[in-house]
Amino acid sequence: QVQLVESGGGLVQAGGSLRLSCAASGRAFSSYRMGWFRRTPGKDRELVATISADGRTFYVDFVKGRFTISRDNAKNTVYLQMNNLKPEDTAVYYCACRPEEVPKWADWGQGTQVTVSL
Question: Of 11, 18, 70, 75, which residue is most buried, by most CB within 10 angstroms?
Answer without folding.
Answer: 18
